[in-house]
Amino acid sequence: SRFFRIAPSILSADFARLGEEVDNVLAAGADIVHFDVMDNHYVPNLTIGPMVCKALRDHGVTAPIDVHLMVKPVDQLIGDFIDAGASIITFHPEASEHVDRSLQLIRDGGCQAGLVFNPATPLSYLDYVMDKLDMVLLMSVNPGFGGQAFIPQTLAKLRETRAKLDASGYDIRLEVDGGVKVDNIAEVAAAGADTFVAGSAIFKARRTGDPHAYDTVIREL
Ligand code: DX5
Ligand code: ZN
After folding, report:
1. 88: CA distance to ligand 2 center in Å?
2. Is 215 a catalytic residue?
3. Binding site membership of 143 for ligand 1 (Cβ less than 6 Å)
4. Where in the chain are the domains?
5. Catalytic residue (one of 31, 36, 39, 134)
6. ipTM exceeding cut-off 0.85 for this assembly
7. Which of 36, 91, 175, 185 is least crowded, fewest Cβ atoms below 10 Å from its Cβ?
8. How many CB atoms lie within 10 A of CB 221?
9. pLDDT exceeds 70 at position 71
10. In this predicted structure, what is the pLDDT of residue 156?
């Protein structure tokens, strides 16, 4: 498997044809499926839950499903997503009363675990849980909506995070989420990210009417 991974955010997919959309981006070369879960409480938007994750598995999706929980509290849904076929589960530390326990729940369920940092959330949450992490996700927008602009301060935070992960000696992925496009992905990679979420950049290609648009964008990313 190659080092860099592209993770299309299905938040920008056509939900009426979700299985087909996921099949198409995977066929075009995407590596993992980014699955945004919003609860109208932790973030001001409402999306999809474990039933939809299960439906994608039943549809035949075998690629890793990267569940990004923007919900509070997290523990009940962690269990539900483990049962629904999630591969990776990440949550925001502010949304769990017991971050260490929630991370352990994810790994005990056989999934990879990660913490998500909002633009203003300090990285200090990492200090005592590094051994329980498979992924760190830095938000490069405020969570809740697709199609927002990349916050440039994320680049310095990525460099700082990359240094911490390298110093830890653990094998931990560094994912970035929000406003990643063809024209900024190189600088995001240079700052240390290895896994790139892209929602509108990939799924907007659909509206161009070009049947190979996904292939073109994913190849360029
Ligand atoms: C935002 C979500 C993102 C979003 C990214 O809260 O976590 O995954 O879908 O969308 P784009 O790539 O359009 O910024
Ligand atoms: Zn996300």
Report:
1. 12
2. no
3. yes
4. 5-220
5. 36
6. yes
7. 185
8. 20
9. yes
10. 98
The reply to whether ligand 1 has any atom less than 6 angstroms from the CB of 36 is yes
The answer to whether the annotation marks 109 as part of a ligand binding site is: no
- 90 in contact with ligand 1, CB cutoff 6 A: no
Sheet architecture: strand order including 5-8: 5-8, 195-198, 173-177, 135-139, 112-117, 88-91, 65-70, 33-38
Gap between the Cα atoms of 107 and 45, Å rounded: 28
- 31 included as an active-site residue: no
Residue 100's DSSP bridge partners are none
Looking up tokens 């474990």 gives: 50
**pTM (predicted TM-score):** 0.96
